[in-house]
Amino acid sequence: MTILYEAKDRIATITLNRPEVANAQNAELLDELDAAWTRAAEDDDVKVIVLRAEGKHFSAGHDLNDRWPSPDEITLEWIYSAESRRYLDYTLHWRNVPKPSIAAVQGRCISGGLMLCWPCDLIVAAEDALFSDPVAIMGIGGVEYHGHTWELGARKAKEILFTGRPLTADEAERVGMVNKVVPRDRLDEEVRALAERIATMPSFGLRQAKRAVNQTLDVQGFHAAIQSVFDIHQTGHGNALSVTGYPILAKLDEMKQKLR
Q: Which among 26, 40, 57, 246 could disulfide-bond with 66, CB atoms 3.0 to 4.6 Å apart, if both were Cys?
């Protein structure tokens, strides 16, 4: 199983379970993850959802060995269809589940890793957490769920995208992307305590509070922006297919291999 699931004391804990590959996301993991979110959403006994990861790193992003057909078979139509379902539709589903959610992030959270924690309502990061999206090196302007501007602010988002450098946990907390930074050995304990506190609140109040904040963001253009920037992301794939191909994937995969 690429995902572990436990529901106890009104809290559903969803765990990424591919530590041997730094929790890189293959199709199986994403499908099982979406099913786990649905399971938690439909369980009336669950009031809070926790997303965590086994191992040293939260997620090294997309598993590049899993998602691509052979170079002579890949088309923009294939990329658009696959990414629309597993990256755009899934992340918006997780964001809109009507229950509070908390992401516990440790180690590296690279590109596609961001689309796992950003849809969560709260993020608690270990002191060693590093957040990055270096895909501009591929000629792509950011991961498919383009929450960068909303999560970081415009100038910090541009800095991280232009340079590819990782954002530290302390920096992420200062810009409001992370709610709290804790020692690595206390991450699960701190997240559990936060989830237990939230779980004492009335379910309807929690649902309405989440809806109020999310709907305010949507009125400001969040949902429309996510949808439109996804299409901008696809032009990067189109350029790579028509001009450069994907030789850079080997370099990105080499970088991820060092995390394993």
A: 26
